[in-house]
């Protein structure tokens, strides 16, 4: 095992970049050697192999957070890979969709980069899962932390990966792009507001309830889920049937409503009991007027 906790942040980020490039290279080689011709299966092989590579790196350096930016880095890679495998020319329809995905990806990846603390950082959820069941951490890490998010994102992208050669319905494509762009903006604003709040309250455990956080307890998660609904709208615009493709954004919504948000709120309440007042007055997810006391 390799311990890199003393590395400066810049070196740690460089390590991330090299590791991801190697992961994608290995994924590409295995995909090509597989001899599979179906595009979505090719992308699945590429995705799973790259994920396992990143997971293996996490085992070696003893830090599962090496996977954290994969969520935002892979989607534009997947779209670009689908276009290349299908010899799709870049036209305004698929270009607009790709731009919307890249806009979201760059914002979320940038947010990770500016807040990343180096190899000393480990997502608190990973530490909790490890401490709860250390004997099965190997499997929890592989399937729960790495392959489950990879699978959910892949399901979101599978329906559109082979349809980018189609002519998209104008109204639906523009609507999907607007939803994706608005979602990325909501995430940017909410994350910026939270960062400023934390800087102003470093010396005490305060509860955020201003800005977008006054109308939703988790506006950043709302923006994330909304983005994937925008992807679905675009998918339908490219000719995919609305059912069963709608199952993908529903799964993404359930992931946040029933796993991510409850875990986050349990953690906040454990250190900030006054957060219960916010829970009673502010909408959990959908932005809405706060309840009057």
What does this structure look like?
With about 290 residues, the chain is mainly α. The protein folds into two domains: about 1-165, no CATH class; about 170-293, no CATH class. Helices cover about 70% and strands about 0% of the residues. The protein has eleven helices and no strands. The chain has helices spanning about 10-35, 40-60, 70-85, 90-115, 125-130, 135-160, 170-200, 220-235, 240-245, 245-270, 275-280. The termini are far apart. The model has no long low-confidence stretch (mean pLDDT about 95).
Describe, in short, the structure shown.
This protein is an all-alpha fold and 293 residues long. Helix content is 71%, strand content 0%. It has eleven helices and no strands.
What is the mean predicted local confidence, pLDDT? Answer: 94
Q: What is the 3D shape?
A: globular
Largest sheet: none
Kindly report how far apart the N and C termini lie.
Answer: 54 Å
- Spans of at least 5 consecutive residues whose pLDDT stays below 50 are none
* Radius of gyration over all CA atoms, rounded: 20 Å
Which strand-content bin applies to the residues?
under 5%
Query: Count of helices?
Result: 11
Structural class: mainly alpha
Percentage of helical residues? Answer: over 70%
């Amino acid at each position: 095992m390799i311990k890199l906790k003393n590395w400066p942040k810049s070196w740690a980020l460089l390590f991330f970049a090299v590791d991801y490039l190697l992961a994608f290279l290995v994924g590409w080689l295995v995909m090509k050697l597989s001899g599979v011709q179906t595009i979505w299966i090719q992308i699945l092989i590429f995705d799973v192999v790259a994920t396992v590579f990143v997971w293996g790196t996490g085992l070696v350096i003893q830090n599962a957070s090496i996977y954290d930016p994969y969520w935002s880095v892979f989607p534009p890679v997947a779209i670009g890979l689908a276009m290349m495998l299908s010899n799709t020319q870049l036209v305004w329809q698929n270009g607009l969709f790709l731009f919307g995905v890249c806009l979201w990806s760059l914002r979320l990846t940038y947010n990770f980069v500016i807040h990343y603390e180096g190899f000393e950082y480990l997502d608190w959820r990973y530490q909790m899962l490890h401490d709860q069941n250390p004997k099965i951490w190997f499997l929890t890490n592989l399937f729960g932390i790495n392959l489950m998010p990879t699978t959910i994102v892949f399901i979101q992208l599978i329906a559109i990966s082979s349809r980018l050669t189609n002519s998209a319905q104008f109204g639906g494509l523009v609507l999907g792009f607007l939803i994706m762009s608005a979602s990325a903006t909501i995430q940017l604003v909410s994350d910026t507001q939270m960062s400023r709040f934390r800087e102003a309250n470093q010396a005490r455990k305060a509860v955020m309830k201003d800005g977008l956080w006054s109308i939703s307890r988790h506006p950043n998660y709302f923006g994330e889920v909304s983005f994937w609904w925008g992807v679905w709208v675009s998918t339908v615009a490219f000719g995919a049937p609305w059912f069963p493709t709608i199952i993908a954004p529903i799964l993404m919504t359930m992931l946040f409503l029933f796993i991510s948000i409850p875990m986050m709120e349990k953690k906040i309440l454990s250190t900030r009991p006054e957060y219960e007042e916010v829970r009673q007055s502010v909408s959990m997810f959908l932005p809405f007027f706060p309840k009057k006391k």
